[in-house]
Amino acid sequence: MMLDWPTLVQYLPVLMKGAVTTIEITLLVALFSFVIALPVAIARNSASPLARGAAQSFTFFFRGAPILAVLFLLYYGLPQIPGIKESVFWHVIERPMPIAVLALSLNSAGFLAEIFAVALRNVPVGEIEAARAFGFSTLKTFFRFTLPAAARLSLRSYGNELVFVLKGTAAVNFITITDLIGAANQVYFNTFDPFTPLLIAGVIYLFFALLIVTGIRLLERRLSPWLYRKNTPEPRLKELAA
């Protein structure tokens, strides 16, 4: 089967419009999932058993629940709550886009919270103790030393999660949002050619994923340049033992 160029030329604007919607959702989910995940990660490492239990329950549920289940639960379930349609909150969730962003953000936050929690636990204790010894308060130590170090440790995993978010946006066409996959399906229904629109959609997804991976790699090179140095001499055991 070959690519149908007349179909591609005719329906490329439709596919690009769907791609713009996909990118909008991905960027919004990346922002809100980070905002949700960071306090959950901090609670995950808290000394309080109640905070740890609540954070662990959050990550357990949203990591295990399928995206479609969360999406349908919010889209069809929230309007059934008594009084929700009379509240101010209804003006926010009556449209499918906020519901899609909320569902995908909660799902992604479940994974990001674990990524951030592990990174925070792996920050070298010596760096934190040195900052406290120089007179930094607990809050300043966290924001100036612990958080940047954890960001470097979690950067690659965060990039992988962003790629998963990008691909997960395909679920939103089930609640009447025309994303990239929804646009490809529209072209298929109009032309009965599944190959051309789905192939182009796959190429666009691949391009956006490559952009994310490249951006994360450049950011990692900026934050952790020593990982990319060539011909770095390895420490000799005799020198270390001396």
Ends apart, CA distance between termini? 68 Å
CATH topology annotation: MetI-like fold
- CATH class categorisation: Mainly Alpha
Largest sheet: none
What structural class results from the helix and strand content? mainly alpha
**Helical run tally:** 10
Mean pLDDT: 89
Shape: flat
CATH architecture field: Orthogonal Bundle
Q: What string gives the helices and strands in order?
A: HHHHHHHHHH
Strand fraction? under 5%
Helix content: over 70%
CATH homology superfamily name: MetI-like
Low-confidence stretches: 234-242
Query: Any idea how many domains?
Result: 1
User: What is Rg?
Assistant: 23 Å
β-strand number: 0
Briefly characterize the structure.
The protein is 76% helix and 0% strand. The protein has helices spanning 5-44, 49-64, 67-77, 90-93, 96-121, 125-133, 138-168, 180-191, 195-223, 237-241. Helix 1 packs across helix 5 (96-121) and helix 5 (96-121) packs across helix 7.
Walk me through what this model shows:
The protein has 242 residues and is an all-alpha fold. It has a single domain, classed as Orthogonal Bundle (MetI-like fold). Helices cover 76% and strands 0% of the residues. It has helices at residues 5-44, 49-64, 67-77, 90-93, 96-121, 125-133, 138-168, 180-191, 195-223, 237-241. Helix 1 (5-44) crosses helix 5. The model is unreliable at 234-242 (pLDDT under 50).
Can you give keywords for this protein?
single chain, MetI-like fold, 10 helices, 76% helix
